[in-house]
Amino acid sequence: MAEQGNIGAVQARIRSKLTEGLAPVTLKVIDESDKHAGHGGHHQDGESHFRVEVVSEAFAGKRLVERHRIVNTLLAEELATRVHALTITARAPQE
To answer: So where are the chain's domains?
Structure first.
């Protein structure tokens, strides 16, 4: 599970798009692909299963489904191609 250090290209794109689109106070992008080896959707090179934890003012006053929709829209290209699973924790700073 890589968050810092050995960051792959997909993880770097996810981080970049969420940073640009949400100006987060806190952002963690964790590659959990190694936990899913042998499962459906696992890519042999990894970078197929991610967990995102993001705190952003952009989520203030929004329901959970709206927050997830924002993240999914920002990452639409990755979700349509390489990313098989994305776990999202999205909060506003005051939460």
So the answer is: 9-91
Phi first, then psi: give them for residue 11, nearest 5 degrees.
-60, -40
Fold of 9-91: GMP Synthetase; Chain A, domain 3 (3.30.300)
Residue 27 exposure: Cα atoms within 13 Å on the Cβ side: 19
pTM of the full predicted structure? 0.83
Find the Cα–Cα–Cα–Cα dihedral 45, 48, 52, 56, rounded to 10°: 100
pLDDT exceeds 50 at position 4: no
Nearest alpha-carbon partner for 22 in 51, 58, 52, 53: 58
Question: Helix 64-74 and helix 9-22: axis angle, to 10°?
Answer: 120
Instruction: Report the C-alpha gap between 79 and 68 in whole angstroms.
Output: 13
β-bridge partners, 49: 85
